[in-house]
């Protein structure tokens, strides 16, 4: 019981008051273009969820210092996410050709990154309200989505330092509850 209370307190602390999708909400389904190891493909969230939980992490812009560091950190821990039964998908408003290069260089080809168009950005409430190179950028928000399509954890913080550790802990907790 104490462990569960700790998880609830951690979730409450990680979810900002402005997050649109809170734990228990249905994650909006989407289809978009993404890339893994430089190869472009069509990514459908519902299809990804058939294989287990998904860590859907939004980042502001490919090839910026914080986003590159975060991608490398997810790549370093990808085996731990897989062992916990989860897939990792990075999302930004970058065009897919830029994400294809980012998927090779920073993600080490270990997980896909996909283009979040305006509808996805709105549905996940991740608009940062700023632009880079004439396009809107997203906040740094990580969602853990269970196999049923429900948000079970949210971490919303522009500092990339804790996203990997907190989402991995949430995925491991989810695995232990199954």
List the main descriptive attributes of the protein structure presented here:
single chain, 178 residues, alpha+beta, Glutaredoxin, seven-stranded mixed beta sheet, two-stranded antiparallel sheet, 7 helices, disordered N terminus
Question: What this model shows, in words?
Answer:
The protein is an alpha+beta fold and 178 residues long. The protein has one domain: Glutaredoxin. It has helices spanning 2-14, 45-49, 65-76, 78-83, 96-105, 118-123, 163-177; strands at 31-36, 39-44, 54-58, 87-92, 113-115, 127-132, 135-138, 141-145, 151-156. The protein has a 7-stranded mixed beta sheet. Strands 6-7 form a two-stranded antiparallel ribbon. The longest helix is centred in the last third of the chain and has 15 residues, at 163-177. The protein is globular. GO terms for molecular function: thioredoxin peroxidase activity. Residues 1-19 form the signal peptide. Its EC number is 1.11.1.24. Keywords: Antioxidant, Disulfide bond, Oxidoreductase, Peroxidase, Redox-active center, Signal. It catalyses: a hydroperoxide + [thioredoxin]-dithiol = an alcohol + [thioredoxin]-disulfide + H2O.
